[in-house]
TrEMBL record:
The protein's name in its UniProt record: FAD binding domain-containing protein
Keyword Membrane set for record: no
Organism field: Lachnospira intestinalis
Residue span, FAD-binding PCMH-type domain: 1-162
Pfam families listed in its UniProt record: CO_deh_flav_C, FAD_binding_5
Coiled coil: none
Length: 263
């Protein structure tokens, strides 16, 4: 059971930051996953009055406020066009529309949840997290960190031309995923990112340590890299699938991603 002693709707980021330095105080975001936990919060910090619930788009980037809901991102025309509809595909299975109307992008990114479709979707793009004190940090680096008391203000996605693919395997339509996969090919450099999440660990970009894709995507390199992912990506088992099953899925989805982003 979640127990909250005090609630404050802050009037500035500085006020929120100062309150958040105390151990038992928490920024609540949409509170959709937090409320399912068993913990005691001294002060719940609400950022909803700070205007951080907007998606701003210009010629160079998307700037996604931390309080933007998953539903706002899911139906945003500009971001859907940029990702070739992958944002809608990634988010539409998350529980239900009512849930996505409340859950926030900032909370999903800060949580680095092992089952997160949001992190799998964003980590392979040219994405960054804007923190109140530290400034701008690459999302891939941020995802690998331990939790701290800084505050996410925005998630920034640079508008580099991309071809993108997204697919997740679920036992039922709105269940947590067994495995998630996104593929991104940057048209300006030819660089490809394959991102796997719900391993059941948090999403990672699979590093092409053997330079299998360095000469381009071909039938041969697709087979080799999919095999490399299946054999080398760390996976574990839980109630939704065994480690072996997840490894097999990782290879299959990697192959699909490479085929689709190379069209």
């Amino acid at each position: 059971m979640l127990n909250i002693q005090n609630y404050i709707k802050v009037e500035s980021l500085e006020e929120a930051y100062e309150l958040n330095q105390k151990k038992n105080n928490k920024i609540i975001g949409g509170m959709m996953w937090m409320r399912m936990g068993d913990s005691r919060i001294n002060t719940a910090i609400d950022l909803s009055g700070l205007g951080l619930d907007r998606i701003e788009e210009n010629d160079d980037e998307f700037r996604i406020g931390c309080m933007v809901t998953l539903r706002q991102l899911e139906v945003h025309d500009g971001f859907n066009q940029y990702t070739g509809g992958c944002v809608k595909e990634a988010l539409r299975h998350i529980v239900g529309v009512q849930f996505r109307n409340l859950a926030t992008v900032g909370g999903s990114v800060f949580g680095r949840y092992g089952f997160s479709d949001v992190l799998t979707l964003l980590i392979g793009l040219d994405s960054y997290v804007e923190l109140y004190k530290e400034g701008i940090v690459r999302l891939e680096d941020y995802a690998g960190r331990s939790y701290d008391n800084d505050i996410i203000i925005n998630i920034i996605v640079k508008k580099r031309p991309v071809h993108m693919f997204y697919e997740a395997v679920r036992i039922t339509e709105t269940d947590l995923p067994v495995l998630t996969c996104s593929g991104v090919k940057f048209a300006d450099t030819g660089l490809c990112n394959i991102c796997i999440g719900a391993r059941p660990g948090k999403a990672v970009i699979v590093k092409d340590t053997h330079d299998i894709l360095s000469s381009g995507i071909s039938e041969e390199s697709i087979e080799k890299f999919a095999d490399f992912v299946e054999k080398n990506l760390p996976t574990q088992g839980n109630m939704r699938g065994s480690a072996g099953y997840r490894s097999h899925l990782a290879g299959v989805l990697t192959k699909r991603a490479l085929i689709n982003i190379n069209k």
